[in-house]
Specification:
heterodimer, A: about 450 residues, mainly alpha, MetI-like fold, 2 domains, B: about 290 residues, 15 helices, about 0% strand
């Protein structure tokens, strides 16, 4: 932490001195570009670049004077004119205001970045010229895009796509967490900024707070239990199949891979049918003279939790097994030979060679699988999404936070609370993975097994 | 015979046989556990009675092809051929677009050492830490605001644009191509674009095939996003459609599932080696 701040301080000082130096060195052309984008490039006779930058500036100014500024104001107010069905007044749509505002904010940042880039570009050219080289022509620029700067060409679309479909939605959701968007504040009703109120609601008494803590408790228990269970079972299966005594390894491995390959929604729906009230298992129980067990119904809290755990094991143990098999084949056989000579038994070998190695190699995947399980939407969505429990706010006693999130925002339109909860999930999962990662042997002694 | 007279070796041999029997018993039980639900589904898809309640127990008493025939002919309420077609379109488009974007990303991040590289990788890591639901909810809200739901092209766009975030496996592959392969081409003055198309891409064929097949298979099993975005029955994918089938349509569900699961399972058997490689490379490099 201390180092971080020291580095930050140093960076700021560096930046400042660079800035001062920059002014001392900057020539007329650079200063021209600082006033008008592209001017410096024109003065170096880089017509292509100059037109591009000038065009960007003109477009930018046009955009911001006509729409952009208005949209930014809209982001702050979220609309002021309430719709009135009596007079037919259409009113402002807060969600669209938010989206447009966010977009123009991004464009503003982009514009500023391009402005800086433009100055930096002329500055670099001026350095080139000082060294006695010629400024790059536009043709060379285009050629570079296929050679030295080829990565820019290749990465352009992926980055654009990621920004639009991953980054912006997440930023949008973070913004929603600080508004009252959601029943009954849904356009055409105006939405407002309400600060931290959603988070306060989640952590206080009322409907939502207690449900949150109950679900969080079960969610943590579930994540730990299911990750450990899958890990141990998968590891044991891999070790079992790795034994010399087992013939026809390929044949035996087919079955877990089969389970791994079938799309999850099929197996989950099938298991739901299997354990349903009129399903085959209850049929046999009734045949044997018992009464149907409430596996997945409202009263079946612990039954449903146990079944969820086992079904998730059925679904994920194969992938752990495959992973562990790959890792086991990487262990240096000399280690075992040496251990045998030293008189170590099978258990000792397992404890002192196999286990540390596998744990070392799988810690990162353990983290991802822990987070995957923490946010395991599928299992309880399929098994019990039609059940609502008493004492839970639009939720039931097997729901994980992610299931609750779905019910809140998709089924019941509590968007802002949902957004706040997804932010909390993000904070929890990233904190956990950070802690596990730092404490893990893979991080502490990186070179042990290399 | 002399060795057998030694009771110690005898004991050891018996012990070994017993261990072998025990191991094989455990293996048979495990494989049974994995195979049983699949067997149940397959047999149910051939049951002559459609509902889960009529089958009575796990296995149907009489068999027929009714469920499969109904699946493809009785389309008034559940239009399975239409779902197949929709999913096929989505899968093919997603396969092409995602593969292009993922391979490009992985190659650029692996091959070039540019300034923003580290921050891009960190950014991707942070983005992938957010619950994927967050983005989906927003996309759902916006799509409903703009009346853009029920559009499979929107779905394709979202699938392929979010795909590059999962570039790590492919980057791991590109990392293993030694730089020395490129040196000769560089000396000859070939541009990076040329090197990419003539040297890197042919070398990367296995990982391209892997990426293409996994992105082709994904729309067949994903259910959350299509369920949110495709409300109209005619636009459903197989996953969304099959999810609507209730217990009384159990045989139809089983038949529909078996029909799409078989190609996917075959695909996985071919891919499993690559997948393990991908998983381990992800494990070591983080």
């Amino acid at each position: 932490m201390k180092r971080f701040f020291r580095r930050l301080g140093k960076n700021i000082v560096d930046l400042w001195t660079n800035f001062i130096n920059f002014f001392k060195v900057a020539n007329l052309n650079v200063k021209a570009s600082m006033c008008l984008m592209g001017a410096g490039q024109f003065m170096y006779r880089q017509i292509g670049r100059g037109i591009l930058y000038l065009g960007i500036e003109i477009l930018g100014i046009l955009f911001f004077s006509i729409y952009g500024f208005q949209w930014l104001v809209g982001l702050i107010t979220l609309g002021t004119v309430e719709a009135d069905p009596w007079t037919g007044l259409e009113g402002d749509n807060s969600v669209i205001f938010m989206l447009l505002g966010l977009m123009s904010l991004v464009l503003l940042i982009l514009f500023i970045a391009l402005y800086i880039l433009n100055v930096r570009d002329v500055y670099n050219t001026s350095k080139l010229v000082l060294r006695g080289e010629k400024p790059k022509t536009f043709k060379q620029d285009l050629k570079d895009l296929l050679d030295k700067k080829f990565y820019k060409t290749v990465l352009f679309l992926p980055i654009l796509g990621t920004i639009i479909f991953s980054l912006l939605p997440i930023v949008f959701m973070i913004l929603i967490a600080f508004t009252n968007y959601g029943e009954p504040y849904i356009p055409p009703v105006l939405v407002d900024w309400i600060g931290l109120e959603n988070f306060i609601k989640v952590f206080s008494i009322g409907d939502i707070g207690p449900t949150f803590f109950k679900i969080l408790g079960w969610n943590i228990l579930w994540a730990i239990a299911t990750t450990l269970l899958n890990y141990v079972l998968g590891l044991l299966l891999a070790i079992l199949l790795n034994k010399k005594i087992v013939k026809g390894k390929f044949f035996w491995r087919l079955f877990p891979i089969l389970a791994y390959a079938i799309p999850g929604f099929i197996t989950l729906t099938a298991f739901k049918f299997m354990f349903s009230q009129g399903g085959p298992i209850n049929f046999y129980i009734e045949q044997a003279g018992g009464s149907a067990l409430p596996f997945l119904t409202k009263d079946g809290t612990w039954w449903a939790r146990l079944i969820g755990l086992l079904i998730n094991a059925w679904l994920t143990v194969p992938s752990v097994m495959l992973l562990a098999t790959g890792i086991l084949s990487n262990i240096n056989n000399d280690l075992y030979e040496a251990a045998k000579i030293d008189g170590a038994g099978a258990f000792r070998q397992f404890k002192d060679i196999t286990l540390p190695f596998v744990v070392f190699a799988t810690t990162p995947t353990l983290i991802t699988s822990f987070i995957g399980n923490f946010n395991n939407f599928g299992v309880f969505y399929f098994l019990r999404s039609d059940v609502t429990s008493n004492g839970y706010f639009v939720s039931n006693d097997t729901d994980l936070l992610i299931n609750w999130l779905y019910r809140l925002s998709i089924d019941n339109k509590y968007y802002s609370i949902g957004a706040a909860i997804s932010l909390i999930i993000f904070i929890i999962t990233s904190a956990i993975s950070l802690i596990i990662y730092i404490k893990s042997p893979a991080y502490k002694k990186e070179d042990t097994f290399r | 015979m002399r060795s057998f007279s030694n009771s110690k070796t005898m004991n050891r041999k018996v012990k070994k046989v017993l261990v072998a029997i025990a191991i094989y018993c455990i293996l048979i039980v495990i494989c049974g556990v994995f195979f049983f639900p699949c067997l149940w589904l397959i047999l149910s898809s051939f049951s002559s009675t459609g509902s889960l309640y009529d089958i009575e127990g796990f296995f149907p008493s009489s068999f027929s092809f009714d469920a499969f025939i109904k699946l493809f002919t009785d389309t008034s309420q559940y239009n399975y051929p239409m779902w197949l077609l929709n999913t096929l379109i989505i899968a093919i488009c997603n396969c092409i677009l995602s593969t292009l974007l993922i391979i490009g990303t992985a190659y650029a991040i692996s091959y070039f050492q540019f300034k923003a590289r580290k921050s891009l990788m960190k950014g991707a890591l942070v983005l992938s830490m957010f619950p994927s639901f967050m983005g989906m909810t927003v996309i759902y809200i916006l799509m409903t605001q703009f009346n853009f739901v029920n559009n499979i092209w929107g779905l394709i766009l979202i699938y392929s644009c979010t795909a590059p975030l999962g570039y790590l496996v492919q980057k791991g592959f590109f990392d293993t191509i030694p730089q020395s392969i490129y040196e000769a081409a560089k000396i000859d003055g070939a541009t990076n674009a040329r090197i990419f198309t003539t040297i890197t891409l042919p070398l990367a064929k296995p990982i391209i095939v892997y990426t293409a097949l996994t992105s082709f298979a994904w729309p067949w099993s994903d259910f959350i996003l299509p369920k949110l975005l495709l409300i109209n029955k005619d636009n459903w994918t197989v996953a969304v459609g099959l999810m609507q089938l209730q217990q009384n349509e159990f045989a139809r569900f089983a038949a529909g599932s078996v029909f799409i699961a078989i190609p996917i399972v075959i695909l996985y058997f071919f891919l499993v080696k690559y997948m393990v490689n991908g998983m381990t490379s992800g494990a070591v490099k983080g």
